[in-house]
């Protein structure tokens, strides 16, 4: 089954070049493209593509603001002429960061990473873990055997996830999307691209802007849910 792709760039020539470079990848289907940010936001929210190729410097909204405007984001590859945004790109858990002019070999590498990520999520080698299990984390020279039930918060940090449990915060070299597929679905809730939290460690649930919710954890962390995730949270918890 083909994976859907959407292209966003304020330069029409850049869009045409990318469309040509993607032609050899027959498992990818370009379902839309736009040089206008507002149109791209509307179409991505409707189409929910598996992968977005996204420019960063655009009039009106930059690439990061564009992502914040989407209801749901799966995978993102940034394509830009500027390298100073690389760190921030990986902070929002982008799959890759390609510099213009595009190098076909680097593009192929990025597509390979996308395929691997999809395969990992769609065909997990192990079943979902139960709350009474432990996960092993090697963080630098330290090793942690972490009881899943004691993890209260997971934070995406580039290509890592910071795991909060007791008074520890080790880094795990996995993506938040991967952990979402592995951890107990009845215990952990994916708040947004950055956070996933343990329902047992919620201290308060407060009404927020435009019918959204603010989750206050026992640790003091405050996590705001989008309208979409607020609806999902209410459905799951009956709040």
Topology:
Elements: E1 3-8, H1 12-22, E2 28-34, H2 37-47, E3 51-54, H3 63-68, E4 75-80, H4 86-91, E5 96-99, H5 104-122, E6 134-139, E7 142-147, E8 151-157, E9 160-165, E10 171-172, H6 176-182, E11 188-190, E12 195-198, E13 202-207, E14 213-217, E15 222-224, H7 227-237
Parallel strand pairs: 1-2, 1-3, 3-4, 4-5
Antiparallel strand pairs: 6-7, 8-9, 8-12, 9-10, 11-12, 13-14, 14-15
Structural write-up:
By secondary structure, the chain is of the alpha/beta class. The chain has 2 domains: 3-122, Response regulator (Rossmann fold, 3-Layer(aba) Sandwich), CATH 3.40.50; 134-237, OB fold (Dihydrolipoamide Acetyltransferase, E2P) (Beta Barrel), CATH 2.40.50. Helix content is 30%, strand content 31%. It contains 7 helices and 15 strands. The strands form 4 sheets. It has a 5-stranded parallel sheet with strand order 2-1-3-4-5, with helices on both faces. A 5-stranded antiparallel sheet has the order 10-9-8-12-11, with no helix packed on it. The radius of gyration is 19 Å and the shape is globular.
